[in-house]
Amino acid sequence: MSDNELSAAKDKGPQTNLPKRPRRYFLPAVVGAVVIRLELFYLASFDVQCSVPGVECFLPLLLIFYEILPGRRPRTERRKDDDETFSQTAFEDFDDWAETSAPLSLLGGLLLAYGAYRASMGSNKSTYFCSALDRASLVFWAQLTGLLLDATIIILLWRILAWARTTKSRLRTLSGILLATSLAVGTMVWLLQQYEARDGLGSLYVFDVIFDGFLFSLFIISSTFVVCEGNPSTLVGTIVMFCGILSAKHRIALAGTWENVRRGQSHTALFVLSVGFATFSYASGLRSIIYMRRILVLILLALFFVCSAIYILAKKGTLLDDYPVDKFIYNNRIEADRWLVHASVSKSVKIAVQEYQERNHRRDPPPKFDIWYKFALDRNSPIMDHFEQIGHDILPFWGLAPEKIREGVALAAQQPDIAIVKVENGAASHGQFIDSPYRPILDELVDLMKPFSEHLPNMQIAVNMNERPRVLAPWDDVQRYTQAGLGHGLRKLLSRRSVGSSPAQDLQNRVDPRSAPDILQKDHTSAQAFRQMTALACSPGSKGRSGVHWNIRDFCSTCAKPQSEGIFLKHWDMSLDICHQPDLAHLHGFHITPPSLKPLQQLVPIFSRSKTSSYSDILIPMRRQYDVPEDEPGSDFQMKYDQLFWRGKISGDDISHDLLHGGHQERLVHLINNSTSSDRATILLPSPNKGDKHKDTEEDRYRYESAPISDLTSALPINVAISSYANCKPPSPACDRALREFGTAPEDPPTLKNRYVLLTDSDNGPPVGLLPALRSTSVPFVATVFREWYTERLMPWVHFVPVDLRYQGLWSTLSYFTGLKGKGEVAGRDPQMAARAGDAVWIAEQGRTWAGRALRREDMEVYLFRVLLEYGRLVDDGRDENGFVLT
Ligand SMILES: *[C@@H]1O[C@H](CO)[C@@H](O)[C@H](O)[C@H]1NC(C)=O
User: Could you tell me if the CB of 666 is within 6 A of ligand 1?
Assistant: First the structure.
């Protein structure tokens, strides 16, 4: 608050806007109101997906209501004090009239609130859903009551503080109130926690909370001064105006993209908002807005309105010349060829060694590399040089001394669901008893090692038998070890023979504070703690680490943008990284369900079948515990059902609120089967005006349009359902709820009898049946966050069709292949969009051929051999000297 404004306020006559005297009970009333308000906020944010956006915008309207109540505002008296009434100009007359007109005040407030509300309404919803079984109306009433309480709190505070005589006493009263409310809120939270468990934010965000709390108090204190010199409605109105402008600006910037297909809407909102604010500012005598004269602000508003109109008009013709999928297929086909050339450069061991060094930070290949090379050659491996995943998995361990790695294996061996496979004198074995459920898997793994185990050094490998990956080391640790590991390679470049302690070992001794690791991990982890551990595995600057993603109601466009082109998933590889997609923490079953076994937060070598980008497990090919029996790859594509088929499994009887509404399987079923008539989605359609003139489909241009989901489900054949609720014991309320929510699948035809097969992750691991689907003549649609050993070998849009787990592009992607011609009305017309079944056949065929070339059992052997050679060297004390050198 400036002295200017203070004195300006004084000039107008001392305390012209003084409200009525506060009553004695006001203080406790404020405290009570804040407590109830926070409880309502908690209630509404528990089901935030059901809340109505923009309700808060109506706060100024409520305040104005209060102010114009009879006897509340001493407006009329102000000018009467002046002697100069006779010299008033017509303009000032207008001012006078405006400032005393209650209806005008109300009208301004109404327009302002409505404009801001419309401006904040347009954003896209995420697929985290509000079910018919949720108490959406309760949330709405909580929002409304909360709004009323907000107004009450502000008015009470205003009346209390405006009557404080000096600044000092005002501050003292305010801090008293803040302290009392904090105490009351703290007590209430403590009391409630005795009855129900509530997730806190977690210690990772303590600094954020303190910082935000500090900012908030600062805001309260400074706004107190502003408000006490005027009315609360002027400050609140100004804030709402700014927020409205910001969201309108955000929406307008998206005009022409798929996220804002109704361009006019936000612009109209902006208009209403501006007119509303102009009226409001005159009606409430707001002469200056943050040091700017009112007229200047209004001119700026008008300018912004005109500029955005021009921007929107310029964007209006955003028609796409090609369907993006067309381009993806064409480009990635070339890319796949290029990749394959690069993946198999070497034609002899000599070149292979050079390639290895080039791709592995100048390190020599492991001993017996020539034998591996011959092995791979004999097995016709199409890939001889590209093993980036192995390099990536192994590299951090170069920062750990060999004996530390061996200690890690011993530590891992004590964990549940870890089996040890031993290689001794060229023979691999595991010590699982005959009745162990893991035995068949380990038998198979040992079997896979048999052809090459004679070449392996003695070692012990810790194999993870759990569905979930296990090693969730913090980013800082992994990074430090990786840097140390890189040092190794560089040092070797300088001198081949270095004796004495290696710097990496020194570093290791220094950096490992967990010399006494917590061997017996606590088994239970909360979803919150688990999410926090995952966040720690992201780099400090990334979005996944730096904040809490709480707005699960709206579509997170910054999360999806990096890997998307328009509504489609373009860079599949990027989509596997969670660190720039914090929204996935609430949109994927893997992140929502806490693991039954707490992940290890230190770097230990554990071999797993699959992992997400956050984990440091070493990937190996391995059978799953419950693999689907491979059904016959199926007949001809043309003979199959023309639909996208998916069957999900909900497992566990502990289905949390978050999982029920946000799990990737649950969202999918709700989206397709339970959308209401008002739900809409965006889809790319051929633009209508072009289609009339030219019947030639090649002339088609495309535009994003919004269509009711009911149109899309009837035009596009998508068959999804939950086929089993494993571990569901009948009396479980969570199971009961899930059953009512999603229903059960009618009957299950064989998956591969369908032309399009949607493969999503289970809650614990990658899609079941991905390899069989690749090997079949069906087109796999893949939505996953997991990596497996062969992930790097797959090319999206060539071997399979990638789908974003937010499902925003599912409709458009499928419609490219099945077409929309003659399938009923979409967005009010029959879109003349021909099917591209030819492309579908091509992708199915590419996937099949490639799986037959690069994803065979032989390829698993080649991969496993190479990983184990690397690992064998890693745990060898002489690892710095004994690399493979061609003689
Ligand atoms: C959702 O759809 C399924 C299948 O159509 C149905 O069984 C289930 O009752 C629906 N759920 C709700 C909440 O309406």
Answer: no
721/835 Cα distance (integer angstroms): 25
Mean pLDDT score of the chain: 86
Which whole number is the average pLDDT over 155-166? 88
Per-residue pLDDT band for 167 (boundaries 50, 70, 90) equals confident
- How confident is residue 860, by pLDDT bands cut at 50, 70 and 90? very high
DSSP secondary structure, 406-437, as one string: HHHHHHHHTSTTEEEEEEETTEEEE---TT-T
pLDDT of 86 over the 90 cut: no
Q: How far is the C-alpha of 320 from the C-alpha of 700, rounded, in Å?
A: 9
Residue 510: pLDDT over 60: no
CA of 777 to the centre of ligand 1 (A): 32
100-122 confidence digits (pLDDT tens): 678 888 999 999 999 999 988 87
The residue whose C-alpha atom lies closest to atom 4 belonging to ligand 1 is: 743
What distance in Å separates the CA atoms of residue 437 and residue 445, rounded to the nearest whole number?
A: 14
Please tell me if the CB atom of residue 674 comes closer than 6 angstroms to any atom of ligand 1.
yes
Q: Is the CB of 389 under 6 A from ligand 1?
A: no
Residue pair 788/619 in contact by the 8 Å Cβ criterion: yes
Q: What was the pLDDT predicted at 778?
A: 93
Query: What is the C-alpha to C-alpha distance for residues 35 and 320, in angstroms, rounded to an integer?
Result: 52
pLDDT at 518 (0 to 100): 45
* Closest to 263 in 3D by CA, of 320, 321, 322, 309: 309
Helices (H), 768-809: 770-775
Looking at residue 245, its pLDDT comes to 93
Whether 675 is in the pocket of ligand 1, judged by its Cβ within 6 Å, is no
Indicate the residue type of 298: L
Distance (Å) from CA 675 to ligand 1 centroid: 9
Lowest mean pLDDT among 317-326, 782-791, 865-874: 317-326
Helix, strand, or coil here: 598?
Answer: coil
Q: Is 266 helix (H, G, I), strand (E, B) or coil?
A: helix
* Ligand 1 probe mutation, 670, 672, 673, 714, most atoms within 8 A of CB: 673
What separation in Å is there between the alpha carbon of 131 and the centre of ligand 1?
A: 10
Q: Decide whether any atom of ligand 1 lies within 6 Å of the 676 Cβ.
A: no
Could you tell me the CA-to-CA distances from 600 to 141, 518, 570 in Å, in that order?
44, 9, 33
- Outline where DSSP puts E strands in 334-417: none
Q: Is 74 in the pocket of ligand 1 (CB under 6 A)?
A: no
Contact 586, 662 (CB under 8 A): yes
